[in-house]
Design a protein that fits this description.
- The structure holds 2 protein chains of 2 kinds.
- Chain A is mainly β.
- Helices cover about 5% and strands about 55% of the residues of chain A.
- Chain A has one helix at about 5-15; strands at about 35-45, 55-65, 70-80, 85-100, 110-120, 125-135, 140-150, 160-170, 175-190, 190, 200-210, 220-230, 235-245.
- In chain A, strand 3 and strand 4 form a beta hairpin.
- Chain A is globular.
- Chain B has no helices and 10 strands.
- In chain B, the strands form 2 sheets. A 6-stranded mixed beta sheet of chain B has the order 1-4-10-9-6-7, with no helix packed on it. Chain B has a 4-stranded mixed beta sheet with strand order 3-2-5-8, with no helix packed on it.
- Classes of the chains: A mainly beta, B mainly beta.
- The interface between A and B is medium-sized, with 20 and 21 residues.
């Protein structure tokens, strides 16, 4: 193959940039004041095609609700490409600003800002902005994240990427809530990828809160399975999360 | 203490004392947004929480918070204090 024919392929890889698999978490705009959280979460893809199987993304995060409208966090990101090894890929800072007191207006809204510094100097850093929206339509809580990201630095892809994260949650019990979540990456705002090449996934997610004897604070868990909706998506994806939260 | 009942647009005050909610029952009208003012008269923090109402908010010792709820349809909605769930319990009645 001629070098000129390789260039678009290399360009596509660079455009993809960042982790092999996006962080599939739905963020509420609601901030919990004075609460420290230690969180581990991740995903792993499942597919018969070895080029899409066993991609992983793991986040380990420490966060704090500074006041009633500002939440800040620092995290480490581990990623694994299909057929690759798991590696530390980025360190990041994230902040959520709650714009409206929960329930006061028709819609709850917040803003999310993240900067992730790539651990390899060959990879670009990433800036990410999310518009966080939430609406209670009893008995469901509906949450939508509109996500915009941009690579920064060496080998940065051009343009602004667009993603979404959606959730409909039925809070049945404190210890068990039923949700349906959807995630998608249509592509850059300057031109979405052909539908078959976009990644979209949808599936059930269970979550809840529990306590352990003799340990102050709460534990929050989530576990789910997402089904790929397009040819470009992995057939399935397991997602998990465990969080310890305590008041200080 | 007797249950509270009030009209639409009212703010309702809920007091936490000795890790209990007072009053333990509040009646609010259906289809109306309501503000709960939760005052914590204990020295320690509490978390106002309701799974059904999707509310979870810390109220520091000797502090107070506003919690907006509704509009709600008829029913009974439980709330509790996440740090003292054995004693800090109550419910909202929507007739």
């Amino acid at each position: 193959m001629k070098v000129t024919r390789l260039l678009p392929v290399c360009g596509a890889i660079l455009l993809a940039g960042g982790p092999a698999l996006a962080d599939h978490k739905v963020y509420s705009p609601v901030v919990e004041e004075n609460v420290w959280e230690l969180e581990a979460r991740g995903q792993r893809t499942i597919d018969s095609d070895k080029n899409k199987d066993d991609a992983q993304d793991q986040i380990y995060e420490l966060s704090y609700g500074v006041n009633s409208w500002w939440y800040t966090a620092i995290f480490g990101n581990l990623t694994k490409e299909p057929q690759g090894n798991i590696e530390y890929s980025a360190t990041g800072l994230e902040n959520i600003f709650q714009l409206t007191p929960q329930g006061e207006y028709w819609l709850d809204a917040g803003l999310y800002f993240e900067y992730a510094r790539a651990s390899s100097r060959h990879d670009p850093d990433e800036f990410e902005f999310k518009l966080l929206l939430e609406k209670q339509v009893a008995p469901l809580v509906l949450t939508a994240n509109l996500i915009f990201n941009r690579d920064i630095g060496d080998n940065a892809g051009k343009g602004v990427g667009f993603e979404y994260a959606l959730r409909a949650n039925y809070p049945w019990k404190r210890g068990l809530q039923f949700g349906i979540e959807a995630f998608g990456e249509p592509g850059r705002l300057t031109g979405f990828e052909p539908t078959a090449e976009q990644t979209h996934s949808l599936g059930p997610v269970l979550s809840g809160k529990f306590n352990l004897p003799m340990i102050p604070g709460n534990f929050v868990y989530e576990a789910g399975y997402l089904f790929g909706l397009t040819e470009g998506s992995p057939s399935g994806e397991v997602k998990w999360g465990l969080e310890y939260e305590i008041l200080f | 203490m007797a249950a509270l009942s009030a009209n639409a647009a009212d703010a309702f005050t809920l007091t936490i004392k000795d890790h209990k909610y007072d009053p333990p029952e509040i009646t609010i009208p259906a289809g109306v947004k309501v503000k709960l003012v939760v005052k914590n008269e204990d020295d320690t923090a509490e978390e106002f929480e309701s799974v059904e109402l999707n509310r979870e908010k810390i109220v520091v010792g000797n502090g107070q918070i506003d919690v907006f709820i509704g509009p709600l349809s008829s029913g009974r909605y439980e709330f509790f204090g996440d740090f003292h769930p054995e004693t800090a319990r109550g419910h909202i009645i929507v007739p």
